[in-house]
Amino acid sequence: MQKPLVALGVLAAIIVLSAIVNVADWIKGTLFIIGLLLGCALLYARFGFTSAFRRLISVGNVQGLQAHMVMLAVASVLFAIIFSTGFTFTGAEPTGNVSPVGVSILVGAFLFGIGMQFGNGCASGTLYSLGGGSSSMILTLISFIAGSILGAYHFTFWMGLPSLPPLSLNQIPGLGYLGALVVQLALFALIYWITIQIAKKKNPPMMKPLPTTLGWKKVLRGSWPLFTAAIVLALLNALTLAVKGSPWGITSAFALWGGKAMMATGVDVSAWGYFDGKNGEALSKSVLTDATSVMNFGIILGAFISAAFQGTFKPGKIKPGIAGASVIGGLLMGYGARLAFGCNIGAYFSGIASFSLHGWVWGVMAMLGTYLALFVRPMFGLKNPKSTDSIC
After folding, report:
1. d(Cα 320, Cα 328) in Å, to the nearest integer?
2. Which member of 38, 162, 193, 275 has the greatest number of CB atoms within 10 A?
3. pLDDT for 300-352, tens place per residue?
């Protein structure tokens, strides 16, 4: 255990929490704490969206996607209860991440799928890997922000292309939230069954075991099983919905950070279509008042503290090929997330849990983007799993 780093991380978390409560309120402070817990869960299980897609397509390893199905099933149940009852801790009306399905999401999710394989991490993966000591994620995050602001600049153009209106399964006549939940649980079960058949046919190498320990020490110093983290992430996303009235998201904060940076250089981004309404109002306020931003800060710090507990925080040098891939991946993810109304968290995880059709479409298109990216990754020195590997 890297005790000095643990102490530094805890001290930083206390300082940031105090600043958030002072500048904003305890609601944002609570969201920061939830962010800390999300960072811990992601780091302890190395819970991946990027790696899950890559392992599935390259060698047929289904462990990651099976964990996704468990996570989505638990979240859908909890979201259905919150939406149907209208309950939140703060009195805010709960609203889901439900967005249109059109050209923008098809292109955006596809680009994101390519980008996350180049950047070796998705939106959540970028944050927790950065906190966990991955040096290349600094480049990925900076490029992610740059891509987000470019996507915001082109946002009006993409929104003008053909699109279907937002659709939540509960809006289908005769379904409601109970019917929508039954449909989704059946889909999760079907996908899980299909993954079992894929595993039987492919007999893929299993995921590399994570460093761990025994007993209660495992909670803070070991690694968590994927399914444990899946359930914890679902619970924390539902808690996020019950606190702020909307589900977990990540990348809107990147567009905000990029917008503020552009404003500081004299570029008036407030005239851009993306920054109409609430997005524009956030430009004139502290980032500590932005719910998504404070949760992102929490994820980074939570992962840092967890890595220090494990003794795995060891930043290293960045190889030129990895650096190039990180920059390209970040740009594609940032741009794609704006077009697709979110990332692997806001669109895929929270979108599907909100019973939105666009969440399912996002998952399919990101998978297709992953398939294409696997052919190009070796050019940057990035390895793909092979069926002859003992582990992947």
Report:
1. 12
2. 38
3. 999 999 999 999 999 989 998 999 999 999 999 999 999 999 999 999 999 99
Specify the pTM. 0.95
CA distance 90 to 297: 22
Calculate the alpha carbon distances from 235 to 33, 100, 242 in Å.
Answer: 14, 26, 10
Return contacts of 165-169, CB within 8 angstroms, 24+ apart. Answer: 165/100, 166/98, 166/99, 166/100, 166/356, 166/358, 167/98, 167/101, 167/356, 167/357, 167/358, 168/96, 168/98, 168/354, 168/355, 168/356, 168/357, 169/355, 169/356, 169/357
Burial category of 246 from C-beta neighbours within 10 Å (exposed 0-12, middle 13-18, buried 19 and up): buried
- pLDDT, tens only, 246-265: 999 999 999 999 999 999 99
* Cβ atoms of 172 and 110 closer than 8 Å: no
Structure tokens at 101: 């399905």
279 contacts 255 by C-beta, under 8 angstroms: yes
Residue 210 burial by CB count (10 A; 0-12/13-18/19+): exposed, middle or buried?
middle
HSE of 224, CA atoms in CB hemisphere, 13 A: 24
Q: Which tokens belong to 356?
A: 């939105």
